[in-house]
Specification:
- This protein is mainly α.
- The protein has one domain (10-79).
- It has five helices and no strands.
- It has helices at residues 13-21, 23-32, 36-46, 51-56, 59-75.
- It starts with 12 loop residues before the first helix and ends in a 15-residue tail after the last helix.
- The model has no long low-confidence stretch (mean pLDDT 85).
Length: 90
């Protein structure tokens, strides 16, 4: 990863925790930081499509992924995923 163009998130404890055990996932997060693709990827890692990953993640790594999602939502609120309740559509 080119540190010169890396997002500031790589300096966070959450990112370092994830990178220690899953460097390929950390690289993808750094690459897609600030893009809609990251929102979908983080949700996949935590959601129903990420069941395989959840079985392999420690609680610390799961917490780090959640922290990274929160940080991304704060930095890029226009990209944040918004859960909609079916009943709110009426």
């Amino acid at each position: 990863m080119n540190v010169e163009h890396a997002p500031p998130v790589i300096q966070t404890l959450a990112f370092k925790t994830l990178a220690a055990g899953f460097p390929h996932i950390a690289r993808r997060i750094a690459l897609f930081w600030g893009h809609a693709e990251l929102v979908a990827y983080l949700r996949e890692l935590q959601g129903s499509h990420g069941e395989l990953w959840r079985d392999r993640f420690t609680p610390e790594v799961l917490s780090a992924i959640a922290e990274l999602e929160i940080a991304h939502d704060r930095a890029f609120p226009h990209l944040a995923h918004v859960d909609t309740d079916f009943w709110d559509t009426f």
